[in-house]
Design brief:
Layout lengths: L1 E3 L15 E2 L21 E5 L5 H4 L2 H6 L1 E2 L1 H14 L43 E3 L5 E8 L2 E10 L6 E4 L13 E7 L11 E9 H6 L7 E5 L7 H5 L13 E6 L11 E7 L1 E2 L9 E4 L10 E4 L7 E4 L2 E2 L6 E4 L4 H11 L3
Parallel strand pairs: 4-7
Antiparallel strand pairs: 1-3, 2-18, 3-10, 5-13, 6-7, 6-9, 7-8, 8-11, 9-10, 10-11, 12-13, 12-16, 14-15, 15-19, 16-17
């Protein structure tokens, strides 16, 4: 059963934005940095079932899961329709007026008539060895199996995973089923097992209107073999209401071409505001990771041992060289606190 506390009342002003979601060291165990009061009334949650979920994710289903970037495109389209906008593209090759950026749905590249993408600038990403607390997120929405990325974060329940809001809720719409976290995934291997969700949490701004500004979610995981997630893989500290323009290192499992989703990648750089849609309040860093990396963690500093301060959310166009993530302020902090203290 879904329970929602006080839905947000304002819709994000989506002005002709062509979005491509980029959705999928030892664990830091520092306590979360809490800067001021929170607004837990903006939390939307859903109970999940453990019944046969881990068994559902066979190696074949994990390999064939669709990258979660398609879900942000769908959320954007639904929100535009709700506010009466008519300039909604119906194919991957159409362009929103005024932006000159093609809306690319990575899962449809095989049937697209667009010109082939140029070679990826390998300087915009780096290969990484598996990190115990970072992994792939698998889930089902509307009968389709999807893949994103996620990270184990420090919490009172020792069982909380961060990801993008669109990786656990349609925004607006239903919550995901079969939600499973596979830490340190590498070439189909699940060295720490498959962790199933007990409950899913996101901001009601995302669940009620698909507001990109709040595209973050948290999953509370069941125990596995009698152990809690953080005790097995570690957990990252988190920080909220940080200064803007800081240096970050982000991680994820990009699955859309030219990547395969079978290994961990990273991007590093100094954050800058989104110049195309400043109302999103997001920040971007140099990065060319594609669909599947959605929900992967952003760490302050230059390694996976820093405090987490955002997640991979979206980029512009098929050859995007910038990854954008939501600003983790008071609203997202409230959602984290609700999830992290849930039984």
């Amino acid at each position: 059963m879904t329970r929602t506390k006080t839905l947000a009342t304002s819709l994000l002003g989506l002005t002709a934005a062509a979005l491509l979601a980029l959705g999928a060291g030892s664990g830091a165990t520092a306590a979360p940095s809490i800067s001021d009061g929170t607004d837990a009334s903006t939390v939307s949650s859903n109970s999940a079932s453990d019944a046969n979920t881990a068994d559902y994710w066979t190696p074949e289903r994990m390999k064939n899961a669709v990258s979660g970037d398609l879900l942000v495109t769908k959320a954007l389209t639904r929100t535009q329709a709700a506010v009466g906008l008519s300039d909604i593209p119906t194919s991957p090759d159409q362009v929103f007026p005024g932006l000159g950026r093609a809306l690319t749905i990575e899962g449809q590249n095989a049937t697209s008539t667009a010109a082939p993408s140029p070679a990826v600038d390998r300087k915009a990403n780096a290969g990484e060895s598996p990190v115990s607390h970072i992994g792939k997120v698998f889930f089902t929405l509307g009968g389709v199996n999807y893949v994103c990325s996620g990270n184990s974060v420090t919490s009172a329940n020792q069982s909380t995973v961060s990801t993008a809001g669109h990786c656990l809720n349609e925004g607006p719409g239903a919550f995901a089923g079969n939600f499973t976290f596979v830490p340190a995934y590498q070439d189909g291997a699940a060295p720490y097992g498959k962790w199933t969700a007990k409950a899913l949490y996101t901001t009601s701004q995302w669940s009620s209107s698909g507001n990109i500004q709040y595209d973050t979610g948290f999953a509370v995981m069941n125990t596995l073999n009698g152990q809690k997630l953080a005790a097995v893989v570690g957990a990252s500290g988190v920080q909220f209401n940080a200064a803007r323009g800081l240096a970050y290192k982000s991680f994820g499992y990009p699955a859309a071409s030219p990547f395969t989703g079978e290994s961990l990648k990273s991007c590093s750089g100094t954050a800058t505001n989104d110049p195309n849609n400043p109302q999103f309040n997001t920040q971007g860093i140099p990065c060319n990771m594609t669909g599947g990396s959605s929900g992967g963690p952003w760490f302050l500093g230059s390694s996976a041992s820093g405090y987490q301060n955002s997640v991979n959310s979206y980029g512009y166009g098929s050859n995007s060289t910038t990854m954008y993530g939501p600003y983790w302020g008071t609203v997202i902090q409230g959602t984290y606190q609700t999830a992290s203290t849930a039984p």
